[in-house]
Design a protein that fits this description.
Blueprint (H helix, E strand, L loop, with lengths): L1 H12 L1 H40 L5 E4 L16 E4 L6 E5 L2 E3 L3 E7 L5 E2 L1 H7 L4 E16 L12 E8 L13 E5 L9 E5 H6 L7 E4 L2 E10 L9 E4 H7 E2 L10 E2 L1 E6 L5 H11 L4 E4 H7 L3 H38 L1 H9 L4 H37 L3 E7 L8 E2 L5 E2 L10 E7 L7 H27 L3 H5 L4
Parallel strand pairs: 5-14, 8-13, 10-12
Antiparallel strand pairs: 1-16, 1-17, 2-3, 3-4, 5-7, 6-15, 7-8, 7-16, 9-12, 10-13, 11-12, 18-21, 19-20
Amino acid sequence: MFFLTYLRRELRRRMRQAVFIALGLAIGIGLVITVMGASSGVKAAQAKVLRALYGIGTDVTVTTKPKPPPARPTTGGQNAAGPGPGGGHATVCLNGKCYTSGTIDTLAGGDQGTLSAATAGQIARLHDVSAAAGGLLLTDNRIVLPTSSSSPLQPPTSVSVDGTDISHPHLGPLSNGKLTNGRAFTAADANADVVDANYATANKLKVGSTVTLAKTKFTVIGIVTQPQASSPPEVYIPLARAQALATDPGTGHSMRGKVNTVYVTAASDADIGAVQQEIEHLLPQATVTSSSDLASEITGSAASAAKLAGALGKWLAVLVLIAAFAVASLLTMAAVARRVPEFGTLKALGWRSSRIVSQVLGESVSTGIIGGLAGVGLGFAGVAIIDKVAPKLSATVPSSGGGLQTQVAGGGSGSVAAGPTGAAASHAATIAVPMSASVTVGAIILAVLLAVAGGLLAGSFGGWRAARLRPAAALARVA
């Protein structure tokens, strides 16, 4: 009881010094919390981009390089279009087949090679894998040929399509969508589709409307919204139906029993590296990409901010914290020097050195806790300021399309070059990502620990100096 009474009296008597020490610690701790909050906000922004690419819950994706298309002895190349013989109707050749009239509507794979659908099952049985599902990222290419030689040949249109495994709704791009109208897939759905809200708005689609893919009608059963991402698929159809309708542009064969992407969930975050190694051992020719690999490919202000918060911000916080601890220690030692007569008198009255040291430590820790609480308040204020003034971050994400290369010439029947984009047509999409800094429970706990540590450090130096005092020397300084 005397300990607390004496401690309270000394803190009141040296209020200015206590406030100064607490303020120094508060600034250091507040800066640490602010940097941690900003860093968590940047990481959350990056996580939004990564989830938007392959869906929530996907830790690893497995793809493979496409096989080179076979050479075909056609005068227009593998895929070509132009006026027919004698300047008649336009002729379009796709995958070795030539068309002079009607509508060409093909569903083809994009820039990725194919894997056996059984690959997903093999990956799912690996030791550190929680779940795996195959998918087909496709493009529906549509060309309407003119009915007469005088009609112009219109450029082709394309729709991005995702063949999704409806037995694993929590894996793949569709898992990231929020259903705004209609319903999700069921096992009974075959010729049904779910469309992206932007695509539905642009084409005036609603639940019950029909979408034609590869000359097959699909009924819209649901409309989803996706978070802002590089290029979410416009239409989602069941994987089995996509496999039956799609054509591999590299071989011209059907994609039955094939997938071009496998989405994998690890048993835990710590197992992602092990999962990568297991899959690479199982499929040496495959490309295994983790979320950290994708993060390294993201550029723009989001990546720059992450590096800044992770490197410069942390070092700045550490340096300020060291300075705050040093100032607190020096001030505490100076205070002990001014209290030499007091401590000498206490020793003469029978106080042991350990009791004096504990008294100094108690005062320092109390000051540190007060500084820690003030630092938490400053940290919340700093995070709030960042939320108010921080602009949206930009993230440039490499993506690839699977549409058609088009080149239209005016006049007459016109001409158009048509073919899969191929790997060379990959592009980068820049998106805006809002950053929302936040103070976590871990940051608050760290602030309390730092406050106690700062108080203990300052008290240790002061207590060490107080313990070395000799009563006779101390009393000699009493006026």
